[in-house]
Specification:
The complex is a heterodimer of chains A (254) and B (214). Chain A has 10 helices and 10 strands. Chain A is of the alpha/beta class. In chain A, α3 packs across α4, α3 runs parallel beside α6 and α4 packs across α6. Chain A is globular and about 55 Å long. The relative contact order of chain A is 0.18. Chain B has a single domain, classed as Up-down Bundle (Methane Monooxygenase Hydroxylase, Chain G, domain 1), CATH 1.20.58.220. The longest helix of chain B has 34 residues. The chains are: A alpha/beta (254), B mainly alpha (214). Chains A and B meet through α8 and α10 of A and α3 of B.
Chain lengths: 254, 214
């Protein structure tokens, strides 16, 4: 049966060694919508999205408990291959990280080539489509052989998004994707996020509350590893239910 | 911790509270002039123009705070509500001016029968008390006072329609009195409506709930 939720998270807990960083998080993340995760530094935002694609467990000493259903399947079930899960979720980080020795073209094609796709025509079409989706095509179409590292910070971040889109994920996980960018580059990424939400489920971690207010449909507020409030962004930013949320978003603490 | 936006919000609040007191004074002067037969037109006109200027000033301040601080949650609700309330205060002033204008053109209650005198006095008292309550509930963000406005507004509405019914049944001695009093009760009824709009804004800014008090 069709579910409007891409993720259903039940009692998710995460640790780094003995440090309990996520505490009993339960929530549902809607498909083809943008969900923002906000909260002060160290509240568990990044750990949270890294639990959605089983990246958290890569860290030595890290542990997870609880359930994360993705398309109805618990990704922490022992039968599930984490590599297959990660393939369905593109990830974009705070600092743009294109492969510095590769051309723009190869950066985007890298994932496909790793998956054994060598057909030039297919690669060309995926590279063009991904760069167009990332609103970068018009700026780089004549320089595809230039190094990815030669681009500006904002372009590099869009290149990373194009690279993630090339392998046709269902979800885009973004960890403060604009924190290293200027306002113009930030505005472009934000526009892109809204466009992506037409076809993909986007989960974005951000320090910038105005950014969460601008781009997201739903907002989750984490504080010391606990989910304090989760709801439609309009409600969270106009009339939050929790006093803690109110104090955090109005800047009384943070 | 004092936030940068707090100073601006305090300035805006003090501007809006001053406006509330001035709006009350304007309505009071105008109604008193109409009932007691004194011409307050010039003073009411000056006050009404001041209220319009203050509403503009408050709106500019609110816009500045939005542009500078991108407020959210209770800060945002306060700004939205204050902008609406300053408009309502300016409308108090405008209706007060209308009443004074009617007095200067058509005269007050002197030519009217006792029952008309009494009806308009009672309605004026109720409406003036609503204006007072709206200003007080704003200053204290008191939602109970705001809710109480709803009950008084219903009473004013009943008085308004009862008055119109009685006018139809018992035509006053002069057309001048009929026209003057009909217009004035209509302005009173509108002032009462604006008092409830202010009550709605106070409930919204305090609780986030959007209620209708009319």
């Amino acid at each position: 049966m069709f579910s409007p939720y891409k993720f259903k998270i039940e009692n998710l807990n995460a640790w780094f060694g003995s440090k309990h960083v996520l505490k009993n998080i339960s929530m549902k993340i809607k498909e083809k919508a943008v969900t923002a995760v906000i909260g002060p530094s160290g509240c568990g935002k990044t750990t949270f999205i890294r639990c959605l694609n089983r990246m958290h467990e890569i860290v030595p000493g890290a542990k997870v408990s609880g359930k994360v259903f993705f398309n109805g399947i618990d990704i922490y079930n022992e039968d599930v291959d984490p590599v297959q899960i990660r393939r369905k979720m593109g990830m974009v980080f705070q600092k743009p990280n294109p492969f510095p020795m590769m051309s723009i073209y190869d950066n985007v094609a890298a994932g496909l080539k790793l998956n054994g796709i060598g057909d030039k025509e297919k690669l060309n079409s995926v590279v063009e489509r991904s760069l167009k989706l990332a609103i970068l095509w018009d700026e780089v179409k004549d320089d595809l052989n230039k190094s990815g590292a030669s681009l500006s910070g904002g372009q590099q971040q869009r290149l990373c998004i194009a690279r993630a889109l090339a392998v046709e994920p269902e979800v885009m996980l973004m960890d403060e994707p604009c924190s290293a960018l200027d306002p113009i580059a930030t505005a472009k990424i934000e526009t892109l996020i809204r466009m992506l939400a037409e076809d993909y489920t986007v989960v974005i971690v951000t320090h910038n509350m105005q950014q969460a207010a601008r781009v997201s449909d739903f907002t989750a507020f984490l504080y010391f590893g606990e989910l304090i409030e989760f709801g439609p962004t309009k409600e969270i930013f106009e009339n939050p239910k929790s006093e803690l949320t109110e104090k955090y978003i109005t800047g009384e603490f943070g | 911790m004092v936030r940068l936006i707090d100073t601006g919000l305090e300035q805006l609040a003090s501007m809006v509270f001053r406006m509330g007191e001035l709006a009350h004074k304007t309505v009071s002067l105008s109604l008193n002039g109409y009932i007691e037969g004194t011409n307050a037109y010039e003073e009411v006109q000056t006050l009404s123009e001041m209220l319009i200027a203050m509403a503009d000033e408050a709106e500019n301040k609110a816009f500045e705070l939005i542009a500078r601080f991108q407020p959210v949650a209770s800060d945002l609700r306060i700004l939205k509500s204050y902008m609406k309330i300053t408009y309502d205060f300016a409308r108090y002033g405008r209706y007060a001016l209308d009443v004074s204008q009617i007095y200067t053109r058509l005269g007050g209650l002197k030519e009217c029968e006792d029952w008309i005198n009494q009806s308009i006095r009672e309605m004026s008292e109720k409406v003036l008390s609503m204006v007072r309550t709206s200003v007080d509930s704003l200053k204290s963000h008191d939602t109970n006072l705001a809710i109480a406005l709803s009950e008084t507004e219903k009473q004013v509405d009943s008085m308004y329609f009862e008055y119109l019914d009685r006018l139809v049944d018992k035509a006053p001695a002069t057309n001048r009195c009929t026209i003057s009093s009909v217009l004035v009760v209509r302005y009173l009824e509108r002032i009462a409506d604006h008092a409830t709009y202010i009550g709605e804004s106070i409930i919204y800014l305090s609780t986030g709930e959007k209620v209708i008090l009319r």
